Amino acid sequence: MRDFVYQMPVKVYFGENGVKQHLKNELKHYGKNIMIAYGKGSVKKNGIYDDVVNVLNECGKNIIDFPDIPANPTYEKVLEGIKLYKENDVDLIIAVGGGSVVDCCKIICAGTEVNDDIWELEFEKGIIPEKMGNFAVILTLSGAGAEMDCLGAATYEAKHEKKTLVGPYAKFVIEDPQYIMSVPYKVFMPGVFDSLTHCMETYFGKTFNVSDLMNEGLMKDIIYNMKELINGHDTIEVRSNLMWDASLIQTFLFNVGKPGDFQAHQIENALGAYSHGTHGKQLAVIQPAYYRAVYKNEISKFARFARNVMGVNEKGDDEDIALKGIEALERLIKDANLATTFTEMGYELTKDVAKVVSQICGVSSTGPKELTREEIYELLMRCR
């Protein structure tokens, strides 16, 4: 085991009617100016926005609206939020949305107490601000687990860069499973697969310990509930389980004492700056191709994954079972109606973009195999 100090600072209120039961009490700790951040307006159509505003009005808060955060937050939108936060002397941002809204708010808060450009400060000067703004989360789409960590991804379009910045942890999170019941299957499922990829990326990092044993249980629960959705059993129990599964993986409990891999994520992030594709959908294309490229370097671990997680119970040597596990993952992706190629997803990956992505993406040294730039390019070509 590696040495570690573990602390999870985020308070989560999980359950139905969480906004009405808990938001008012939490708002006592913050000043008058509350900024509500959200996406393209679905929270206004489904009534969640009104639930939040009603409580804010009861508490006599001054509401500052910050709408139209895109599905892949841009740095331009982040800068707009920082400006609005500072101009209105905001005391707390409430992120009403999923991972994109949450990520955007984290990065906004990272830049609210400094005069420097936060992108330049963190990436060029290597400085993480000691003082940051405050934000909380009312989750309306689960999957990325962004509500539980301090990391936010954004795309700097002018630079063709999608990177992860460090922000604050949420002051509190309200997870009401009723709020995700209205999310359409085709929107919800990519987030579910994103949760599974976080588990797998952690699991296939070098070393094996008790964190992996717990991770196996979490992956099995995600897959079980994915299959319930696939088979039309779309209940609040199923969505509740998936909502909490997503949060659990981003507590980083399953990273304790071991490194993760996250090679597929690094490829997807670099590609996302060009494609602007949905994170979970692109990972569904990349992840199996990546595993086919590296499984021979960790055959016993992939065989264990096949047996213990993917439910492969056939006889055979470890290499045969490892391949059957990857095949089972590919079938799960297809059954979930997720694309298995970029073309099927509706994105034309050119050789030029694939070459650039292969040259600029991060390369993992803690996974089954450290890929070369040429191997990453070939992997992307197989995903077309």
From TrEMBL:
InterPro entries: ADH_Fe/GldA, ADH_Fe_C, BDH-like. Keywords: Oxidoreductase. Residues 193-381 form the Fe-containing alcohol dehydrogenase-like C-terminal domain. Residues 9-177 form the Alcohol dehydrogenase iron-type/glycerol dehydrogenase GldA domain. Pfam families: ADH_Fe_C, Fe-ADH. This is Iron-containing alcohol dehydrogenase. It comes from Allocoprobacillus halotolerans.
